[in-house]
Structures are given as structure tokens and as C-alpha cells.
């Protein structure tokens, strides 16, 4: 109950209403005291009329008038002269004088609080203005016992009424909150739990029904999110099925094409001029097909294994990559260069780092070969404050617009005819596995530059 939204709202409402009632209680008690004293002044003024009506007044009548008025004496000021109208023995000294004629609100509140906390009975003088302009000033002397008792009784009634109002208000608000807020919120939570049990089931998507604007907005947002998620899950399932089918087909097709490659070795020995002319094209086509199947199978794996980080000499890795590319270049007019500090050590997975650089250098080599002109490929690196920066640049023709727009998208970012576009997608995944980034820094007629940034992390 206490930990629920409605329970806490009930408690807070009760506290705040009681606080408001206390703030009302203090000036109310001050006003009650002022009215009490003014009533005593009015009674004393009425009692003094008997003294004004005759020159002498019977002592027993005077005592009865003062008793009914609840005072010990009455002083009336008329025409600038103070006149003792009624009097009786005063049982002590006057401890305070209160002037109600020009008392401020703060003064009345202060005096009322002082009277409540002072339990001792005292004699006080009270000054006020006569009603109906029956004089300039009226003064009475009275004790404070009855005043304090009346103030306490009034205060208890106010507090009791405040408590009833607070509880009633809190209960009404509690019921209203449960009806207008808690119940709709529980309904939304129930829909979320029901949807979470089977997110692929479109029938479990929430249908907005709330009348409160904020809750309706929340339901609309939840409905959109659930709809998008259901569609994404369906798409993911279809893609998973398609990926499995493609992987199986690619696996079998790769085996068939590999066998076909073996047969081409025999075809190359043929003396038929037509066969000699078409055999290289057939071999290239088979090679590209096998490469595509292998790339598809590699990309179709569930995920790349997590990198096993160790201290790697980058210059040694780059030398291995460039040496392998030298063999692939053959007689083509392409030069390879490395600008790596000999003692530059990285924290990386050596095998994955080799694959990253090999893919980028291979792409650069194929781009230059495709242009038919001489070119150069350079791998450079340097150490920065928080990591390492590696550049792979070439002087090739640059990437076409389609390749730049879909650079790291599988099967879409191929830069050359017959390319699968998987190379850069795989490279980006490997770089991200190291916590780094792969960016295309520049691409144009003068060449292309890829930049790899690897974080240093807890390097030691």
C-alpha cells in the first residue's frame, strides 16, 4: 500500500492538507481571540449604560453587570475625559495591556500564540473603540483563564475539522488517482507484459484507449514501438531464414565451383585457339564466384570471435600484408610503401589486424588495377594521446558515388564490378570489436584514404 503510487499519493495529500490547515489554524485562532476580546468590550459597554442612566448605581447591580460582562472594571473615555463607569476589586497586578484599535495581523498572531503557550492565569487590560461611536475609547480589566480555555476549545475544534477534511479530501483524491491514473498505468503495464511474452504476435500490440492526454501519448508511443519491433522481428526472422538458405547454397556452390576450377587446369593445355582465348575468362569468372561464396559464408557466421588482445608490432604485420600483396600484383605497375615507426606497438588481435589491413590493401590494389594506370599504395601509422591512427591510402581513381553511399553495407558497397561489398563490412566489424572506428577520410580522382583509429585503453 505505502509503496504503491496511490498509497504514497494518499499519504502526501493528507500531509499537505494538514499543513494547509495548520497555516489556516494560526490566523484563525488569532481572529478568535480578537473576537473574544471585542465581545468582552461590547458587553462592558452595554453594562456601562446603566451607570450612564443614573448618577448612582446599586453595588449589587454593579457587581452583577461586571460579572455578566466578564470584567473587573470598565473605563469609558468621552470628550477627552476618562471616566470609571463600573469597578470591582482587582485580585492582582495587571501583567499586560492589549490595544485592539490599531493592532496589526502579526501582532494579533503573536499575542494569540503567547496566550496559548502561557498556562498561568493573568490580569490584562484591553483597550478598544466603543461600538456605534459611543465614546472615544473603552478599557476593561479581565483575567485570561476563560480566554485561554476558549481558545484551546476552538483550536481543538478547528484541528478536528481539519483532520476530517484532510482524510476526506485524501480519500477522494486517492479514489480519483486510482481511477484516472493508477488503473490506466496498470493497464499499460499489463499490455507490456502481455506483449513481452510473444512480441511476434501482432494481436498483443496495445490499442490506445486512455482519455488523459499524457497517458494517451504514452500509449501511442508504446503502440508505435511495439509495431516497429514486431515488424523488425519478423524481418529478422525472414533474414535469418534467407541467410541460412544462402549459406547452404553458397557452401554447395563453392564446392561445385572448386571442382570446376580443377577442370580448367586441363582446359588451359588445349591447343584450340578458341579455348585458349576463352579459358582465362572462364578461370576469372570461376575465381570471382568462389571468392563471393567464401565471403558470403564468412559474413553469414553468427558473429566474429572476440579479439584476443596482445602487444603487436605494427611494422611486422604491415610487412606481412605487403609481402602477400607483392605476389598478387605480379607484373602490374603498382608500388607498395609503408611508413611505420619500427618500434610502434599496438594492443590488438594480430590475426584480426592482419585481416583488416589485408582487406583494405587488397581493395586499393584492385581499384588501381581496374583503372589500368600505375599507382601506389601506402600504409602509415602514428601514436596519439589516446590511441593509434593507421592510414591506408592509394592513388587510384577513387570510389564511385554508389560505393561511398553504401560504404559499409554488405552486398551494397562494392566498388568494382563483380565485387560483393563484404570486405569493408567485415573490416568495420573487426575494427569495432577492438573498440575503434573505420572512416573514409577522402576519395576522389587523386586517390582514396581510409583511417583506422584504435583506442589505447589500459595500455601498459
Strand numbers in spatial order across the main sheet: 2-1-5-4-3
First-residue to last-residue Cα separation: 55 Å
Helix content: 55-70%
Instruction: Give the H and E element order.
Output: HHEEEHEEHHHEHEEHEEHHEE
Q: Which term fits the overall shape? A: rod-shaped
Which stretches are low in confidence, meaning pLDDT under 50 for 5 or more residues running?
none
Query: Largest beta sheet, briefly?
Result: 5 strands, mixed
Number of beta-strand segments: 12
The pLDDT mean sits at 81
Q: Number of helical segments?
A: 10
Q: How many domains, in number, for the residues?
A: 3
Oligomer: single chain
Structural class, from secondary structure content? alpha+beta
Work out the radius of gyration.
Answer: 49 Å
DSSP strand content: 15-25%
Task: Write up what this structure looks like.
- Keywords: ATP-binding, Coiled coil, Kinase, Membrane, Nucleotide-binding, Phosphoprotein, Transferase, Transmembrane, Transmembrane helix, Two-component regulatory system.
- It is an enzyme of class 2 (transferase).
- Residues 215-242 form a coiled coil.
- This protein is of the alpha+beta class and 460 residues long.
- The protein folds into three domains: 5-168, no CATH class; 213-299; 310-455, 2-Layer Sandwich (Heat Shock Protein 90).
- It is built from ten helices and twelve strands.
- The protein has helices at 5-53, 59-69, 105-117, 145-197, 213-268, 273-299, 314-329, 350-371, 401-405, 422-433, and strands spanning 73-78, 81-87, 94-99, 123-128, 137-143, 310-313, 334-339, 345-348, 375-383, 387-394, 437-444, 447-455.
- The strands form three sheets. The protein has a five-stranded mixed beta sheet. A five-stranded mixed beta sheet has the order 7-9-10-12-11. A two-stranded antiparallel sheet has the order 6-8.
- The longest helix has 56 residues, at 213-268.
- It is rod-shaped.
- The two termini are 55 Å apart.
- The model has no long low-confidence stretch (mean pLDDT 81).
Amino acid at each position: 500500500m505505502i509503496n504503491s503510487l496511490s498509497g504514497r499519493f494518499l499519504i502526501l495529500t493528507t500531509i499537505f492538507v494538514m499543513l494547509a490547515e495548520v497555516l489556516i489554524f494560526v490566523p484563525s485562532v488569532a481572529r478568535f481571540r480578537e473576537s473574544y476580546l471585542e465581545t468582552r468590550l461590547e458587553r462592558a459597554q452595554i453594562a456601562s449604560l446603566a451607570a450612564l442612566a443614573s448618577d448612582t448605581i446599586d453595588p449589587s447591580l454593579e457587581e452583577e453587570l461586571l460579572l455578566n460582562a466578564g470584567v473587573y472594571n470598565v473605563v469609558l473615555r468621552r470628550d477627552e475625559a476618562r471616566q470609571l463607569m463600573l469597578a470591582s476589586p482587582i485580585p492582582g497586578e495587571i501583567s499586560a495591556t492589549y490595544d485592539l484599535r490599531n493592532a496589526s495581523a502579526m501582532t494579533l498572531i503573536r499575542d494569540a500564540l503567547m496566550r496559548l503557550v502561557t498556562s498561568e492565569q493573568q490580569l490584562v487590560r484591553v483597550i478598544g473603540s466603543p461600538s456605534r461611536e459611543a465614546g472615544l475609547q473603552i478599557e476593561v480589566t479581565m483575567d485570561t483563564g476563560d480566554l485561554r480555555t476558549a481558545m484551546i476549545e476552538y483550536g481543538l475544534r478547528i484541528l478536528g475539522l481539519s483532520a476530517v477534511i484532510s482524510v476526506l479530501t485524501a480519500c477522494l483524491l486517492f479514489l480519483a488517482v486510482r481511477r484516472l491514473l493508477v488503473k490506466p498505468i496498470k493497464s499499460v503495464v499489463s499490455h507490456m507484459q502481455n506483449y513481452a511474452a510473444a512480441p511476434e504476435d501482432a494481436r498483443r500490440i496495445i490499442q490506445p484507449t486512455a482519455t488523459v492526454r499524457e497517458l494517451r501519448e504514452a500509449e501511442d508511443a508504446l503502440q508505435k514501438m511495439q509495431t516497429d519491433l514486431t515488424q523488425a522481428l519478423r524481418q529478422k526472422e525472414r533474414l535469418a531464414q534467407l541467410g541460412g538458405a544462402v549459406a547452404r547454397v553458397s557452401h554447395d556452390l563453392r564446392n561445385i565451383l572448386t571442382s570446376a576450377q580443377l577442370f580448367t587446369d586441363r582446359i588451359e593445355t588445349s591447343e584450340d585457339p578458341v579455348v585458349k582465348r576463352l579459358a582465362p575468362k572462364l578461370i576469372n569468372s570461376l575465381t570471382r564466384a568462389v571468392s563471393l561464396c567464401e565471403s558470403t559464408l564468412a559474413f553469414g557466421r553468427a558473429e566474429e570471435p572476440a579479439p584476443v588482445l596482445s602487444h603487436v608490432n605494427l611494422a611486422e604485420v604491415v610487412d606481412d600484408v605487403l609481402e602477400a600483396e607483392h605476389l598478387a600484383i605480379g607484373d602490374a605497375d603498382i608500388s607498395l610503401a609503408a611508413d611505420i615507426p619500427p618500434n610502434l606497438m599496438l594492443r590488438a588481435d594480430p590475426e584480426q589486424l592482419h585481416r583488416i589491413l589485408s582487406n583494405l590493401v587488397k581493395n586499393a590494389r584492385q581499384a588501381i588495377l581496374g583503372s589500368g594506370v600505375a599507382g601506389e599504395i601506402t600504409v602509415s601509422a602514428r601514436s596519439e594521446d589516446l590511441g593509434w591512427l593507421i592510414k591506408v591510402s592509394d592513388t587510384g581513381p577513387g570510389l564511385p558515388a554508389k560505393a561511398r553511399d553504401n560504404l559499409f553495407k554488405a552486398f551494397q558497397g562494392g566498388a568494382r564490378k563483380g565485387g560483393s561489398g563484404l570486405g569493408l563490412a567485415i573490416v568495420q566489424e573487426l575494427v569495432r570489436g577492438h573498440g575503434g572506428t573505420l572512416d573514409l577520410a577522402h576519395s576522389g580522382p587523386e586517390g582514396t584514404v581510409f583511417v583506422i583509429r584504435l583506442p589505447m585503453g589500459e595500455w601498459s
